[in-house]
Amino acid sequence: MGRAFPGQHSDLPLPTRISDWSNDHILIGLARRGEDLGGNLVLGEESIERWFSRPPLPVTRIDYPRLAEAAAAGEPAGSSAGGERPKFGAYVNGRHNIVKFVARGDLIAQRWEDLLRLEALALDVLREGGIAAVEAELVETKPYIFLEIVRFDRVGERGRRAMISLAAAHQDPTVSWARAANSLRALGVLSNEDSRRLQLNEAFARLIANEDRHHHNIALLPENDGVGDATTARRARFRLAPAFDHLPTLYAPTSDGQLRNRDFVPPTPTADTWEVWDRAATLARTFWRRAGEDETLSVPMREIAGRNLRLLERISFHGEEP
């Protein structure tokens, strides 16, 4: 959605690739078309006027194929790199959603469909295991399969909730989620419970072959929701937002449209994850077991899931239960 922004707002003086944007370009985008970005902040007179003058347009799931075609048309070339897929926002039944989608088709499309189904499964497994994760539901049509994900930074039609990424809170992208969790706990930014949950998120991600563990895939919610003076805001503690974007990206097609069936090498605990490893491994085994039994997945993906389950069942590690 971010990469599609320049094309959707071609009237603005912005480079077509956001990787070429300067800080000035970012400010232009925020101040003139930033009315519905993540979180609760709206910057600039033009954006705030657009926010108040344009209430969300309700749609239904019947509209999803049309919205998918529009989103795909607005994506720049090579948008699938790194496991990212076209997506769109939709206000449906009183809830704001992010909707990921895959057009049905060849073997490459089938692999992306498998990964969309596995993302829904991973989130289900986390929630059933008592780990906060976003609500997500698959919606199937003949031309497309959709994954409808409820936004946790929106409340009702107009309400907004403060949110920042782990990248903003920690500012060292080379550090793992679990190591960042320890640092933020030591600083009093995260509670012991949320720090442990972030460590578990990393362990689970590694055990389900999720290689897309960058700091923008973790979100934090300020305890005071941004209320208070600047001094209070600097000292604000954060809560870990529900988990999202958990899927086995090891098996994502390459950006040039090639399948890759790389071998899954079961990871081992680190100094920052060993205490939560047993619990994460139990959840991961549940994930791979259910994937292997899911007849909506392709046969090759079910075979991959079965092999990975057998690999994890051979490994035992006993740490402290969180």
Task: Explain how this protein is built.
The chain is an alpha+beta fold. The protein has 2 domains: 5-154, Phosphorylase Kinase, domain 1; 162-313. It is built from 11 helices and 9 strands. The protein has helices spanning 5-8, 23-33, 45-53, 64-73, 107-128, 166-170, 177-186, 192-207, 230-235, 277-293, 299-313, and strands at 87-92, 95-103, 136-140, 144-150, 154-155, 159-160, 164-165, 219-222, 238-240. The strands form 3 sheets. It has a 4-stranded antiparallel β-sheet, with helices on both faces. Strands 7-8-9 form a 3-stranded antiparallel β-sheet. The protein has a two-stranded antiparallel sheet with strand order 5-6. Helix 5 crosses helix 10, helix 7 (177-186) runs antiparallel to helix 8 (192-207) and helix 10 (277-293) packs antiparallel against helix 11 (299-313).
Short description:
With 322 residues, the protein is of the alpha+beta class. It has helices at 5-8, 23-33, 45-53, 64-73, 107-128, 166-170, 177-186, 192-207, 230-235, 277-293, 299-313, and strands spanning 87-92, 95-103, 136-140, 144-150, 154-155, 159-160, 164-165, 219-222, 238-240.
